[in-house]
Design a protein that fits this description.
Layout (H helix, E strand, L loop, with lengths): L65 E7 L11 E3 L7 E7 H9 L6 E2 L4 H4 L1 E7 L2 H9 L2 H19 L3 E16 L9 E2 L21 E7 L2 E9 L1 H12 L2 E4 L7 E7 L12 H9 L1 E17 L7
Parallel strand pairs: 4-12, 6-10
Antiparallel strand pairs: 1-5, 2-3, 3-5, 6-12, 7-11, 8-9, 9-11
Helix pairs in contact: 1-4
Length: 313
Amino acid sequence: MPPLHRPDLHLRSATLTAAAAFVLTVLPLRAQTPAAIPAVPMPTGAFSQPPSADPIAYAPTLTFDIASIREIQPAGDTPSWAIGLVSPPHSCQFQARAHPVKTLIQLAYGFAAFQIAGAPDWINTSLYNVEAKCDHSVDEQFARFTDDQAKLEKEHMLQALLADRFHLKAHWETKQTNVYELEIANPKSGSKLQPAKVETVDPAIPNVARPETPGPDIQNHMDSHGHVMTVRYLTTKGMAGLFGSMVRATVEDKTNLPGRYDFTLHYTYQSTDPDSYPTLTTAIQEQLGLKLESTTGPVDVLVIDHVDRPSEN
C-alpha cells in the first residue's frame, strides 16, 4: 500500500461528502416532477455521467435562489472546529465552512479528490465559506423526493452554483490507474459491520409522526491516540467512496453487502507511537472485517477546463 494521506474530514448530516461519493440507483418519482427553473450555464457535460456510471432515470432541475461565497485566509491556520458542512438530505440548505473549491467540486460531482485533474493549485489551498438557500416551496419539494432524487437535485444545484460563481467548465475522461477493491477480509466469518439502527414507530399507535429516512452521518475527531470516526447509516458503496477520499484513490465496493451500517473506526495514518490506534488499512480489517486490495482499473476523471476565483458578495 502507498503512504496514506490525512484528509480534512469533518462532515455531519451531509448528502455526499467530499469524502464520500455515493452512486445511487435512481427511482421513479413519488410526487410530481418539480417545475423547471431556468438554469445558469453549466460545465461542459454538466450532469452527464462518466462512462462507467449507471444510466440516469431522473433529471434534476432545481437551483439555489441565493448564495453567499466568501474566501477566508490564511488556509494553513484554520482550526479544525472552524471546518464544517451542513447539507441535510431532504432540504436545499447548504453551508460549507472553510472548504477548498476542490471539495465543493467533489460534493457536486460525487468523486474523490484524485479524480479531479487539470485545475490550478489554488482550488486546493484557498478556503471558502459558502451558504446557499432556496425558497420554502423548494424545501417542500425536497421533502417529497426519494433519497436518490434529493441527492441528484443537491448535486445539480452545486454544479449550477460552481458554473455561475466560479465559471467552472469541465469534461470527463477515463484513465487506467491504480485502484483498490473493498472486500470482506474473511468470507467464512463475514464482516463485523452492524446494521444501522433506524428509529421505528409502532403502526398501532395513532397520531404519531413517522421518522424521516436518515441520511449518512459522518463525524471525525481526534484524541490522544489518533482519529475516531463515527459513521451512521452508510452503505458499503458509501464506505468505498469514504475510504477512497481518505487514501486518495478509487475504491470499488466488492463486498456485495446490502443495507446500511453503523460503525466507529479508531485509526491513525502514520505513527510510531505504540499507544496510537492502528493504521487506517489495519483498522478497517480488524474493526470492520473488511480489507482494501490493490489492483488496476479504469477510473473516471473530471478534467477542469476552466475555473475562476469568485467575486465576494
